[in-house]
Design a protein that fits this description.
There is one protein chain. The chain is 12% helix and 32% strand. With 322 residues, it is mainly beta. It has one domain. It has an eleven-stranded antiparallel beta sheet, sandwiched between helices. A two-stranded antiparallel ribbon has the order 1-7. It is globular and about 55 Å long.
Amino acid sequence: MATRPPTRRRGAPVVAGLACVLATACASEPPPSWIGEVLGEAPAATLRTTPLAYATPPADCPWAYEIEVDYDTPPLGEDPSISGALVVRPVRDGYVASPSTTIRRGTTVGGHLFYQGVRVSKRGARREIHFGRTAVGPAAPTAPCTARTWDPLEDFLALAFPELPDHPVTTGRTWNGARVEGRCNKTACIDPETYAGGRENHLRPCVTEDVQETLVGVVDTPAGPVAAIEGTWSDGHGEAGISMERKALVSVASGRPLYAKTTIYHRFPQPTFDHRFGPITRTVTIRAIDTCPGTFDHPLFEDEGGRREALLDGYEAFERRK
């Protein structure tokens, strides 16, 4: 429940609590340990109000990402894999609508997503996408609950781009992220012990919450401030059902994701690689591997295998074949 803002008598000083909220930094707390594990030694995550909104890639610098998928027990028909994705703001006939990467409120900007990897042909796949200030899509509404890759392009957009609020957010604040739909809602109205639905479980609603996103820190990097965002989702069955945890880093200045590690705990039995049934834990790690604005000299963004060049070559070849 929202609290009533503090009031003051005429001539009285502003209360300390309000002054602290309006300040850029009030108290220093240690950042979550995973930030240090990803970025190395990170400064304290102070109380800061940070604008969170996406932008588009520069026309001359597509965003390149590596996608690593791992399992504790691989599902039947899918192995751990490494794929790549290129997020492009296309130049048509040498013309760019605007040199700015900023997206105006209430509008979207068209783009391309090129993907090479699991579940597509060797030459790759390209799809029309749209950039908005809060989200990039079309993104799979079922990505937080699936134990395997379904549509790798929509899965990438759903897991790499947490939905942003498009307004200043203070560290520690939580907001409703992407809507989770489709098959993810089926288990919500099933008894997790008997796997039964129907009349006996009619009081269980077949609907789940949105992804819950929380700004857990803002750290300063050589490329500007980076927002650390934690996302969670559950079908409502706790340790007996399906849940998701995501840890993401988003560049505040360039409006782009730099890193996202999503772990999906699918506790309902699934067919596994050894022709048995059991729970599956799926981890998808996405990291930027380019030198566009937002990245900086750090091992996290190294592209040792030359995947970015392969993605650029594949995208150009795909466009020539159209």
